[in-house]
Amino acid sequence: MGDGFVGRPYGVVRGRVRQVLRPYAVVLASRIRAQRAYRASFRADLFGTAVVGLTEMAEVVVLFSAANGTLGGLDLMQALLVFGLAELAFSSADMVFGHVDSLAQQVRAGTVDILYLRPQPLLAQLVTSDISLRRLGRSALAVVVLGFALVANDVEWGPRAVALLALSLVCGFAIFCANFVVAGGLQFFLLNAQEVTNAFVYGGRHASTQPATVWLRSITVIFGFVFPMAFCAYLPAMLLLGEPGAAWLPAWLGWFAPAAALWAWTLALLAWRAGVRHYQGGGG
To answer: Mean pLDDT, to the nearest integer, of 67-75?
Structure first.
């Protein structure tokens, strides 16, 4: 009798969670099947995104080659560790949340109003309305670069390093996802100025792949604390490598990546809430 009393609430909660998540899972499954239906096109998309990632990695290699192999206190192998961490976190976030920052197109078309008719949270509907599996090509390249950089650099492996690596990837993913949500919230105000949000979404991605030691003081404030890009890759990489970090961004701050992710999501939800309250409908 006691076991049944204890087990019953758990079963009710589990059933309720499944009931809530089922509509989102059905929509996502349909999107995945649709993208895989045309296999030649899907493979071409995977290859294309991998080439984009390869091109951006080549930029890092060319930049360090032009700087005689050292830039901002890092050599090329150390820079590839920063690049691999940032690229894997960004490409994963772009796959799941990347379409949120294109909300302005739906607002202009009036299709956002359809989402308001359904009894699910607007943001959850928007996130699960699509998934960009083609980004897997870019993620695969990032995994290869990150694995190569971890082997090539002198990382002292142990539980601390493994925990730090896992923490940086999870928090980096969360921070990039939060940036997409901030951009989505601002799209309710900036219908024809998507470049404004691109500045911190894609500009932040680019900044996260570079050593923070070369950032100007204003860039350090923006991408170190307002949009905490430094916590996605640079600071965890400095901890893994045993390097001191940059001015205003010492390496030990890398352990505060969860706090940075929490701050990023607080900013994201505030921006989203303000945008949703501002929206008055498409007029249709």
So the answer is: 85
